[in-house]
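Journal club side-thread
Mid-discussion, someone asked how the predicted structure for our own chain would compare to the paper's figures. Pasting it here so we can look after the session.
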Amino acid sequence: MVTIVDTLNRPKDQSEARPRHPEKAHRPDNPVQRKPKWIRVKAPTSPVYKETQNTVRENNLVTVCEEAGCPNIGECWSKKHASFMILGDTCTRACAFCNVRTGMPGPVDLNEPQGVADAVATMGLQHVVITSVDRDDLDDGGATHFANVIKAIRKTAPSTTVEVLTPDFLRKDGAVEIVVEAQPDVFNHNLETVPSKYLKVRPGARYFHSIRLLQKVKELDPQMFTKSGIMVGLGEERNEVLQLMDDLRAADIDFLTIGQYLQPSKKHHPVLSFVTPEEFKGYERIAYAKGFLKVSASPLTRSSHHAGEDFAELRAARKAKLGH
């Protein structure tokens, strides 16, 4: 199911009053649980954090760090790490876990690729993550725009490695080919949760379509690193997580991330469990045993957290496996 809410024809004086998630407004509240001590993070105070924020604002860019309410924003921005969210700040999907604004997106900003590239160069990023909202309203789901951003970064900051975190391009024939042809260093697409939870957690997506998308990336370019991630704490069973690992390995995925789901608001899917650091360590050991080149599993793990360091380790792991 794709939920599209018209935000273009509303009265102007109501623009700020419109709920961030209008499709969730009628839902009953789910109490937000107090986080355990191992998840709490400090508020950002670093001067470098402010410098990063200014660079984002000056280039009129959107970051998933802010839009998704990432708990690691203070740490990452203080190190001049940022993940850029292209194609606007409004998503055509209505996932139960996500804090990104939902509704009818505006037109694609054709100046955005160069704006992102300029910000990457200004910040001196060695590795950058480019993600986006879902754009079911576009014929190619935004694939061409992804490719244009990659090309602009290659031209403006040629030493920067590029990781893309794409939507699923559901029913967008040829979209994944467009992105792969632009040659990102890492192609990431998150499964988000186990298949039994899709109807409630990710109703606009299809689990095996996402698996197939990742598999197709490897078929198109066997040397391209592939990556996927999930959240835990949504009611999944341990054996379901282990089966998901097997499904990803069958698609030859290189890198797996597992992090704790945190509830953005009372209208979002509730946290059904807080997974302990010890349980995350167990998932990490099993995932490595199943053959992933790189695994990141912890309460605060997010797809883009430590992405640059993780990419360096990923390359080293492949070299070690190949024996050179």
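Post-session note: The longest helix spans residues 307-322.
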